[in-house]
Amino acid sequence: EELKKPINLSKDEAKQFIYTKYGNDIKFITEPEVKEVIFVDENNGQAKNAYQVTFEAATPNYVSGTYLINAQNGDMLKNILPDGCTVE
Question: Which member of 6, 37, 52, 62 has the greatest number of CB atoms within 10 A?
Fold first, then answer.
């Protein structure tokens, strides 16, 4: 039943998580992609609606990453945001 009531996550809201990590001076190479997914917690096997956000940006170093947001309350479920790398 909990899986039936997701919140909506806009691209602007998705960007806020990225701005929080890298600051407001980043430039997006592509618009973040937001997809609805089902997240299964590895610890307890519980399934949750989630949003998967994938992005590419310049900070000025190139960064790309993916993170998962709980669709019920907006909490971060899984964060796969690297600290950044230099592109040669």
Answer: 52
Q: What is the rounded radius of gyration, in angstroms, for the C-alpha atoms of the chain?
A: 14
Q: Give the closest residue to 35 by CA, choosing from 48, 49, 51, 47.
A: 51
Domain definitions of the chain by residue range? 2-76
- Sign of the Cα torsion 66, 3, 8, 37 reads positive
CA–CA dist 27, 41 (Å, integer): 32
DSSP line for 50-75: EEEEEEEEESSSEEEEEEEEETTT--
* 45-63: pLDDT as tens digits: 999 999 999 999 998 888 8
Query: What is the chain's length?
Result: 88
Statement: the pTM of the whole predicted model exceeds 0.90: no
